Amino acid sequence: MSDVTVRRITPAELAEASRIVGLAFALNPSNLAIAGGNQDKAARIMEHAALTLKLGNSASHVLVAEREGELAGVLKAAEWPHCQMTVGEKIKSIPSQVRTMGLGLPRALKVVGGRAKHEPRKPHWHIGPIAVHPGQQGYGIGSALLAAFLADVDRQKVPAFLQADVDRNVVLYERFGFRVVSQEAILGINTSFMWRDAQ
């Protein structure tokens, strides 16, 4: 991880960081379920969501990782109670979500609603998405992003929460002190909800 640099995102990097999120999540099982199995559509949906709802949100804390001078990874987090969109934000986002998701919107709403039920109702940092460009995977970039962010969280002595629908990610997060506190099959995809106590 010595050749990986982690820092706060700059406004000029928002579009490229969102593109990385889209590429990284193109094969994610929940996104593929939303997109009806279409990988290109899954990437477009996630890129749009990252740009308009996640990375660009004023409540978001976003880190990026650089490797060999290239943007290689992104981590977004939000502090409770700003983890979930407000009713007003949801209403405002509907037109652009309809354009991007089309017939996948009802499935997306089911995923969002299913996950929101597991959101802890107490102070914490909600982490996600964590995305690494497919061409940069295997270099410890996700671990570098997570370690950097959790160092800040630990200085604040605040717990952290995230969700995972890929088993290898669950294993990675457990190495950082997260534990599975609940699970639910959403659109037939097993999703683990994970908590890390304040350190």
Automatic annotation (TrEMBL):
Domain spans labelled N-acetyltransferase: 4-199
Database matches in InterPro entries: Acyl_CoA_acyltransferase, GNAT_dom, Trichothecene_AcTrans
Transmembrane segments: none
Gene3D superfamilies: 3.40.630.30
Domain of life of the source: Bacteria
Xref: PROSITE patterns: GNAT
Pfam families assigned: Acetyltransf_1
Protein name as catalogued: Acetyltransferase
UniProt organism field: Micromonospora lutea
Phylogenetic placement of the source organism: Bacteria, Bacillati, Actinomycetota, Actinomycetes, Micromonosporales
